[in-house]
Write a sequence for this structure.
């Protein structure tokens, strides 16, 4: 029997060796790809064992911090957002059950100290070897709490968004989206958060400021005006005759109010009074491709280059369903309606704040950013964001000309509700009708002070029965006032 | 050095290794583990010294490495269970005491001549079948995780299948020793009992829903049949029959289909049926080359919920692989390999057919059981819930494996004694 016993022994040996091979496969060969799988809870826990960096507002107040908790013998760090819903959309959340969003997602590498910068890499490796907790880097944002609160309070109870930028640098000073939510509740009460509350309980998690797409209506006339003047086909003195409507494809396209036609007007008056027929004429002469080419110069047709996750940014432009209209079909777009912001044009508030900012900044669009600097756990500076030009949209003279027209909108046009005593404010109203009463999308984009622009603001409201001048302009005014009051350096 | 002195020295080495294991769990988890629990380590060493003394008295010429290896495996097991759940470790410690009691009882009862068991072989065979069917008796049986493997008698909750395994081996050793010549002629009329056993294995499979058990019993049977008759054809035919039977069972029982689906792709239903396997893969992969270190692995999510269900019984290997890493777990597997090697060596040295078959059966049962559960975890074969000998949490398994160890020592003692004489 000994022969058989020896053979069986060899067979048993093979069985154990197959176990060694199998284990080697999982621990050496497959381990890296398993580590990257999203449902790998062990790696999620590993993320929570890192002391994430804090997030601070521009004034140094804490927006996100950690609480320490012992779970199953390990020290884990969980996020707390002391300001609750105030910065929910730009900052986002970091949770176990719902992963991450906002800056918590896009700057996860900085916040967990796993960015590829050699200095931090060395620090975290040493931390690992010592067995001590890995500490992430802090973010200091450009957002200012008081104007942010003013914006969110003004939007409360409505669906809408507001964005304020520093036109010269691209710093985002306010980014508010309504309805908002409390990021502290996301981990345990996700359903409640998702359901939303108040009179507009629609999609509270959506960052309407950077990824909400809305019909721009008349605020798009700023882009059209830029195209008209920059191409040299029009001057501010060019005249139009307004019969109260414009004829396109043999059909009438009416003004907002057809009962009182303006008659003969010049370019400036057409923008100040937001005359659709004049812009319709302009559009027909320029053609859709030229208008869209200028839209591209302002940053349309690309994800806004802001430091938010790509899923929370949407490009502005002509849409066909849920996708951007292919370039080959652009020549067939209706130029008249496009010129005053209808057609299938969809824009984000962030994009329109960039348009206002470009006019304020002599025609140059700055890349918007939310993170001013990244600080190492020891307090030393790791990264400081430098302002970056996106591109020149229009010539400086053209920007100047449009700026003074936009000032006219506020002093004696459709946007008088945005007047601030002692401050020169420029603006443009927009009211995109949906054909249903009480379902208008209203807009106001503005910047101030005109002589030395420091702030550019865009406000959008959904489901309105009033106009942009009566609904959105007062909110933009409040935000501008709050920004003018808040000191530009240090605290805000 | 005498055999028993080698055993003593090896046991002290094992005691030191297990002590280090306990210490690292203790250091890593000071907030959870209290210092008094370190006395477990000493208690553990004391237990094995008692076992050693019993071996000195009853089987002085037995193989000196089996008991220390069993000590090492139970030590690693109890350390890991301790790291996962302190209360379970305490109960496991009690089961080890009971197991060593069974070990001592077996040695004392059979120290004169275990070979007299051969005359009761049919009693053992019937006993094995009775034990296997016990969980299916209404009022006694208990279904855990889909398989009817448990018996509840008052406060006792045990798996008779573990003990049935040993009775089956004794029966087969006796039966095959007697019939090996006849069977080797491969005549159809002599094959009746073999079909009977195949039918019984299938029946057990269907009735108890226990795939791992079916595979184990039938594997033991084929291995012993091969050793007894030297007919590879038996193994081939047996395997074909088993696979055929298993295929029939596969199409008939949804649980079996589910297991095969998980085996092929656990990620298809990563939060449902495949959850345990997926989490076990993550656990093993997280160990990497060097492991997280004892006490430092991750077995709960950030909310404190356990990630792998049944981690300290069926899936203890996944926990060990994470904390010991590739280096540590390979050393651990080598202990199983060495145990098997010593067992087969005993079979080679044994003088008579019954002893040889008994040693082969016990050794192969031990190795195959480890392969079935670890191979299932690693997805080399479909996963079936079965314990890892000496390591998993579970009383019946611990007791049965100590009896198995005692059996091997008895055969070894006789073989070495004969060699000396």
């Amino acid at each position: 029997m000994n022969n058989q016993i020896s053979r069986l022994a060899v067979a048993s040996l093979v069985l154990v060796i197959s176990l060694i091979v199998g284990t080697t496969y999982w621990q050496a060969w497959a381990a890296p790809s398993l580590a990257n799988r999203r449902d790998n809870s062990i790696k999620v826990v590993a993320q929570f064992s890192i002391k994430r960096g804090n997030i601070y507002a521009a004034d140094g107040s804490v927006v996100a911090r950690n609480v320490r908790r012992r779970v199953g013998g390990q020290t884990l760090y969980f996020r707390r957002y002391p300001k609750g819903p105030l910065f929910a959309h730009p900052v986002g959340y970091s949770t176990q059950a719902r992963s991450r969003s906002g800056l918590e997602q896009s700057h996860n590498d900085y916040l967990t100290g796993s960015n590829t910068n050699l200095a931090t890499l060395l620090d975290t490796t040493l931390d690992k070897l010592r067995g001590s907790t890995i500490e992430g880097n802090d973010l200091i944002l450009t957002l200012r709490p008081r104007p942010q609160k003013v914006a969110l309070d003004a939007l409360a109870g409505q669906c809408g968004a507001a964005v304020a930028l520093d036109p010269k640098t691209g710093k985002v000073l306010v980014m508010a989206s309504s309805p908002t939510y409390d990021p502290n509740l996301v981990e345990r009460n996700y359903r409640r958060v998702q359901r939303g509350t108040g009179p507009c309980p629609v999609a509270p998690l959506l960052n309407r400021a950077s990824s909400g797409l809305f019909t721009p209506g008349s605020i798009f006339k700023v882009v059209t005006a830029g195209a008209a003047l920059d191409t040299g086909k029009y001057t501010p003195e060019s005249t139009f005759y307004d019969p109260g409507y414009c004829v396109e494809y043999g059909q009438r396209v009416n003004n907002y109010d057809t009962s009182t036609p303006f008659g003969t007007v010049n370019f400036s008056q057409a923008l100040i009074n937001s005359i659709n027929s004049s812009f319709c004429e302009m559009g027909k002469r320029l053609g859709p491709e030229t208008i869209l080419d200028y839209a591209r110069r302002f940053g349309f047709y690309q994800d806004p280059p802001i430091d938010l996750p790509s899923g929370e940014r949407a490009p502005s432009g002509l849409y066909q369903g849920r996708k951007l209209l292919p370039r080959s079909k652009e020549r067939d777009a209706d130029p008249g309606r496009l010129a005053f912001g209808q057609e299938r044009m969809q824009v984000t508030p962030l994009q329109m704040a960039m348009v206002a900012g470009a006019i304020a900044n002599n025609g140059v669009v700055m890349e918007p950013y939310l993170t001013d600097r990244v600080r190492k756990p020891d307090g030393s500076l790791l990264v400081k964001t430098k302002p970056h030009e996106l591109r020149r949209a229009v010539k400086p003279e053209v920007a100047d000309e449009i700026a003074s027209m936009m000032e006219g909108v506020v002093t004696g046009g459709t946007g008088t509700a945005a007047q601030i005593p002692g401050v020169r404010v420029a603006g443009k109203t927009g009211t995109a009708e949906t054909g249903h009463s009480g379902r208008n999308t209203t807009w106001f984009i503005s910047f101030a002070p005109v002589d030395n622009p420091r702030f550019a603001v865009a406000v959008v409201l959904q489901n309105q029965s009033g106009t942009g001048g009566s609904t959105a302009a007062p909110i933009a005014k409040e935000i501008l006032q709050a920004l003018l009051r808040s000191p530009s350096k240090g605290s805000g | 050095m005498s055999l028993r002195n080698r055993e003593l020295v090896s046991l002290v080495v094992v005691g030191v290794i297990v002590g280090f294991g306990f210490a690292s769990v203790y250091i890593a988890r000071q907030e959870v583990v209290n210092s008094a629990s370190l006395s477990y380590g000493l208690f553990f060493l004391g237990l094995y010294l008692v076992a050693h003394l019993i071996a000195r008295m009853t089987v002085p010429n037995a193989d000196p490495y089996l008991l220390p290896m069993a000590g090492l495996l139970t030590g690693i097991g109890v350390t890991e269970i301790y790291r996962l759940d302190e209360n379970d470790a305490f109960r496991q410690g009690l089961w080890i005491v009971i197991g060593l009691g069974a070990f001592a009882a077996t040695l004392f009862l059979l120290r004169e001549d275990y070979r007299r068991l051969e005359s009761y072989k049919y009693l053992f065979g019937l006993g094995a079948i009775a034990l296997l069917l016990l969980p299916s008796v209404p009022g006694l049986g208990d279904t855990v995780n889909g398989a009817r493997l448990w018996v509840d008698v008052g406060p006792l909750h045990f798996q008779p299948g573990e003990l049935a395994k040993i009775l089956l081996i004794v029966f087969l050793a006796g039966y095959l020793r007697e019939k090996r010549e006849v069977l080797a002629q491969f005549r159809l009329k002599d094959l009746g009992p073999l079909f009977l056993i195949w039918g019984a294995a299938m029946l057990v499979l269907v009735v108890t829903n226990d795939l791992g058990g079916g595979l184990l019993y039938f594997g033991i049977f084929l291995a012993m049949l091969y050793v007894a008759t030297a007919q590879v054809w038996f193994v081939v035919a047996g395997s074909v029959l088993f696979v055929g039977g298993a295929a029939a069972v596969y199409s008939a029982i949804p649980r079996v289909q589910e297991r095969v689906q998980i085996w092929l792709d656990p990620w298809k239903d990563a939060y449902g049926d495949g959850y345990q396997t997926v989490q076990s893969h993550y656990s093993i992969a997280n160990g990497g080359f060097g492991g997280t270190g004892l006490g430092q692995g991750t077995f709960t999510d950030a909310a404190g919920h356990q990630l792998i269900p049944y981690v300290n019984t069926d899936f203890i290997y996944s926990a060990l692989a994470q904390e010991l890493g590739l280096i540590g777990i390979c050393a651990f597997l080598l202990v199983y390999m060495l145990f098997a090697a010593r067992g087969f060596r005993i079979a080679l040295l044994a003088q008579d057919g019954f002893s040889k078959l008994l040693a082969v059966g016990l050794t192969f049962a031990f190795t195959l059981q480890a392969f079935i559960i670890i191979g299932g975890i690693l997805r080399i074969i479909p996963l079936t819930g079965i314990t890892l000998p000496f390591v998993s949490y579970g009383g019946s398994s611990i007791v049965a494996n100590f009896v198995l160890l005692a059996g091997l020592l008895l055969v070894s003692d006789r073989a070495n004694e004969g060699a000396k004489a």
